[in-house]
UniProtKB/TrEMBL annotation, chain A:
Gene3D superfamilies: 3.40.47.10. InterPro entries: Thiolase, Thiolase-like. Keywords: Transferase. It comes from Haloechinothrix alba. GO terms for molecular function: acyltransferase activity, transferring groups other than amino-acyl groups. This is Acetyl-CoA acetyltransferase. The keyword Transferase applies.
From TrEMBL, chain B:
Residues 249-372 form the Thiolase C-terminal domain. This is Acetyl-CoA C-acetyltransferase. The keyword Isomerase does not apply. It comes from Haloechinothrix alba. Keywords: Transferase. GO terms for molecular function: acyltransferase activity, transferring groups other than amino-acyl groups. Residues 1-20 are annotated as: Disordered. Signal peptide: none annotated.
Length: 351, 388
């Protein structure tokens, strides 16, 4: 199998509320322009397009069709869409390049969570016959998960607050972050619980945002950037949707994806953990030791644009290779209630 | 990068009807999946990955239903992808599954597409009016009827062509044990006498609203070689998209469809589709779309698709049988309709189409479109391995 590399990454400002439509066009147009400027490519250079978004988040059918207006898709384009985080759109694009049919691809994800009440919208991801009608919301489900870990001794509220403190401090240097700041663990723990045992700092913010990643076959990639972030592992797995039968304090799908991707020797990891305790689950499942730098961007706790946040993790990790900061990095994306579905990408700066 | 060969190892589908209240969504999917796995003679341990496709989540009222369907799809611990590209999604999903094999990433992939419209209300889902977007209005029929009127005006087609297609497809559907509408007694006169819905589309010229699912197992060259009686080899795939509206857009004969077809013929080494293709399963939700797509795909020159239909060439015993399964006019579980076209094409070249088998079918096309005639996905499968 040949190599495919990330050659460009751009993201819209991550904000609590945008004034645009739910089809993402207003966020995507400047972000696409930035990705083109960065790579020196134009619309006609792109062999395949793939996006990730959700009709339910947009409150309408076919939101991705209107998103195509951000591209100016005439002459017609070779294009596909996943109803998933755009990290999986990147996976589809990676597969497409591996078939040899195309040698470049542009992937984008977008979500305007401010259009509805996100925690309730996400309830609709549950089994519609048994769990869904009870309307447990996404934060309540994460609260149950956090509680299981606390009571079984897998983690502590202090460890959760440390994740928040580190993430928000790191986010102070990320100009696209929605939330950042310096806070002591003790200060954070003095705040009230929002959904017991979760406090505000444990929960990713509600974000409007979009991101774009450009892929190229390795040979083409080297014409575009000096140091492309070559994808050396790309795997995803899913766990059972049954919350009652899963061990919610573990993530077997993450562990299996990592084992298949080959993550030994990564220096840095961008993990898509919308809740502090989920980072702890992921670090454990990935077997990351304390020497691995986690989420220098601030991660999802600093900004969590639905259907783009996973792709953004891959973009942020790739940036560390492209700019020469790191040699081997890992990026992770998640989807579904309580870390049900997980994706692991390994990127390297191969000369 | 070298493309690997991919083949359809087996297909399966549900019995389709307006309301499948006898099964849940997982039950519906398993009906198709179990048939496909039996047809392909594979076990769960043979499946490396699952690709699911369906049209808007609002059609069932579940956000990303593949998440809750993971158990029923045997996907736990495996990769599961969810494709959504409007009405063409069943075709796009098959193409994504094929690419997972063609890329060398997987050896065997299960792909499934479905719609269970009875769980929600498709007309409601399509009628939400988001700010700053042109409303679709009276559902798909109202949207596409002006395209048909425009086609008739442009080509001077006689006004009975649509009824010819309806009679042919409904009678074909009577030969298909899984079809939703099976009307062996339908006649030209009864179609012409049926209620006018969206001029010029009459009641008998429009697709039903179906609950149903379709599944396929795709495999690599070694898996294809092992298929008893021969697999359906993927000779080419193509997807194209254009925006819904822009000044000068040709909605009757869209450029995206023409480009996709040209790419498909090129990939499969076809220079004269009409003589080289033995059977076509085209996405025809309203009768008149048969002649329109015959032109769009390049089977005939622009303006003469209706002549091909009128000549009887597209009948089951014609030179280019179109929709021998009965097509979308007989069965329309929206998200699965495109995959049904791809699966029916595969069945023909595998010689597994039963009473609607086209004699000597060696090369077949499966075609899907969606949105406002702006999303196209198609594949060409053959009884022989592709050359090169």
């Amino acid at each position: 199998m040949s190599n495919v590399a990330v050659v460009g990454f751009a993201q819209a400002p991550n904000v609590r509320n945008t004034q645009g439509t739910t089809n993402g066009v207003e966020m995507l147009v400047p972000t696409l322009a930035e990705a083109f400027e960065q790579t020196g490519l134009s619309k006609s250079d792109i062999g395949f397009w793939c996006s990730g978004s959700s009709d339910y988040l947009a409150g309408r059918a076919f939101s991705f069709i209107s998103a195509v207006d951000a591209i100016g898709a005439f002459p017609p384009i070779n294009e596909s869409h996943v109803e998933m985080d755009a990290a999986w759109a990147l996976y589809e694009a990676w597969v497409k390049i591996l078939t040899g049919e195309v040698d470049t691809a542009l992937v984008y994800g977008f979500g305007k969570s401010s259009a509805g009440t996100l925690r309730r919208v996400l309830s609709l991801q549950l089994d519609p016959y048994v769990a869904g009608p009870l309307w447990p919301d996404s934060i309540s489900i994460a609260g149950l998960q956090a509680r299981l870990g606390l009571e079984s001794g897998r983690w502590t509220e202090e460890a959760m607050a440390e994740v928040a403190a580190r993430s928000l401090a790191d986010a102070t240097t990320n100009d696209r972050a929605q939330r950042s700041g310096d806070a002591e663990v003790a200060e954070l723990l003095a705040n009230p619980v929002v959904a017991d045992p979760l406090r505000a700092h444990d929960i990713a913010p509600v974000t409007d945002g979009a991101s774009v990643v450009v892929l190229a076959a390795e040979e083409r990639a080297r014409e575009i950037v000096d140091r492309p972030a070559v994808i050396t592992g790309f795997e995803h797995r899913i766990d059972s949707p049954s919350l009652g039968s899963r061990d919610l304090t573990d993530s077997p799908s993450t562990r299996a994806a990592a084992a298949a991707a080959g993550i030994d020797g990564v220096e840095l990891a961008e993990l898509h953990a919308p809740f502090t305790h989920q980072e702890l689950i992921l670090r454990e499942a990935l077997g990351l030791d304390s020497g691995v730098r986690v989420n220098p961007s601030g991660g999802a706790l600093a900004a969590n644009p639905m259907f783009a946040a996973g792709l953004t993790r891959i973009g942020e990790a790739a940036k560390q290779i492209i700019d020469g900061t790191a040699g081997k990095v890992l990026a992770h994306a998640t989807s579904g209630p309580a870390l049900q579905q997980n994706l692991v990408t390994v990127l390297e700066g191969i000369r | 990068m070298t493309k690997q060969r991919a083949a359809v190892l087996g297909t399966g589908q549900t019995h389709h009807t307006t309301k499948r209240t006898d099964v849940s969504m997982p039950g519906l999917l398993r009906e198709a999946v179990d048939r496909a796995m039996r047809d392909a003679r594979v076990e769960w341990s043979d499946i490396d990955a699952v690709v699911l496709g369906k049209a808007p989540d609002l059609f069932e009222g579940v956000m990303m239903p593949e998440l809750f369907l993971a158990d029923a799809l045997g996907a736990n611990g495996k990769p599961l992808l969810r494709v959504h590209t409007a009405g063409s999604v069943g075709g796009s999903t098959a193409l994504v599954a094929a690419s997972l094999v063609q890329s060398g990433v997987h050896r065997r992939v299960l792909t499934v597409a479905y719609e269970k419209q009875s769980e929600s209300n498709a007309m409601w889902a399509l009628s939400i009016a988001p700010p700053f977007s042109m409303p679709v209005g009276a559902g798909a029929g109202g949207y596409f009827a002006p395209h048909v009127r425009s086609y008739i005006r442009r080509t001077d087609a006689p006004d009975h062509i649509g009824a010819l297609v309806a009679v042919k497809d409904r009678r074909n559907g009577a030969l298909n044990p899984y079809a939703h509408l099976r009307q062996e007694d339908i006649t030209f006169d009864s179609v012409r006498a049926s209620q006018m819905l969206w001029d010029p589309i009459r009641y008998d010229e429009t697709c039903p609203s179906s609950d149903g699912a379709c599944a396929m197992v795709l495999g690599d060259e070694a898996a294809g070689d092992a298929v008893d009686g021969g697999a359906a080899w993927v000779h080419g795939t193509a997807m194209r998209t254009e925006p819904t509206t822009f000044a000068g857009r040709d909605q009757v004969n869209p450029q995206a469809g023409k480009d996709a077809a040209a790419a498909l013929w090129k990939a499969a080494g076809i220079t004269d589709p009409l003589s080289e293709i033995d059977v076509a399963e085209l996405y025809v939700p309203f009768s008149w779309f048969e002649p329109m797509w015959l032109e769009n795909l390049g089977f005939t020159e622009e303006g003469s698709g209706w002549k091909l239909t009128e000549s009887g060439a597209t009948a089951l015993d014609g030179t280019l049988p179109v929709n021998p399964s009965g097509g979308v006019l007989c069965t329309n579980p929206i998200g699965a309709s495109g995959m049904l076209r791809c699966a029916e094409a595969a069945k023909q070249v595998m010689g597994r189409a039963g009473d609607y088998q086209v004699d000597g079918a060696r090369k077949a096309v499966g075609h899907a479109y969606g949105g406002g005639s702006q999303y196209f996905a198609m594949w060409l499968v053959g009884a022989d391995k592709p050359v090169g």
